[in-house]
Specification:
CATH superfamily: predicted glycosyltransferase like domains
Oligomer: single chain
CATH architecture: Beta Barrel
Strand content: 25-35%
Strand order of the largest sheet: 1-2-3-6-5-4
Number of strands: 6
Shape: globular
CATH topology: Thrombin, subunit H
Largest sheet: 6 strands, antiparallel, barrel
Structural class: alpha+beta
Number of helices: 3
Radius of gyration: 20 Å
Distance between the termini: 72 Å
Helix content: 10-25%
Number of domains: 1
Length: 146
């Protein structure tokens, strides 16, 4: 009976969870993500596919696909942003949102890919790309009355 009481006591204790983690729906990412629509070719050990990048940050991308690779898969990524140089990078699948046919809550299937082993030049190209898209997105927002 004593072990049961201990178990109940542990459940009642307040956990030290930071306030920002207690709020539901908050995006705790450090790096700014921007919405994009860029074609990407990606290759893993046994697949070569074409898809679209739908958002990008300095640390990674989200690739919209109905057939995401398993978590942990290394990918060779190749994409050319508008007005920019062709980027050939490596990434690792960090999480997936699997395609679920007929599901109304599965509107964005795909995979989150974190860049790995970027050279300083590649990192700068990605940061500049994110800044450019963030600036363009700001220009699309309606301005206040003058």
């Amino acid at each position: 009976m004593l072990s049961t009481r201990r178990h109940r006591d542990r459940r009642r204790r307040d956990a030290n969870v930071p306030a920002e983690r207690r709020r539901g729906g908050i995006d705790r990412r450090i790096h700014t993500r921007v919405t994009v629509d860029i074609e990407v070719d990606y290759k893993s050990a046994d697949t070569f596919l074409f898809a679209y990048i739908t958002d990008i940050s300095a640390m990674g991308i989200f690739i919209r696909t109905n057939a995401p690779e398993p978590t942990g898969t290394l990918l060779n990524l190749s994409f050319m942003p508008p007005g920019g140089p062709q980027l050939n990078l490596e990434g690792r699948v960090m999480w997936i949102n699997p395609f679920r046919p007929g599901s109304y809550d599965n509107i964005n299937p795909g995979m989150g890919v974190q860049f790995v082993d970027l050279t300083p030049a590649q990192r700068e190209n990605i940061v500049q790309l994110v800044r450019t898209f963030a600036y363009l997105s700001d220009d699309d927002e309606p301005k206040g009355n003058s």
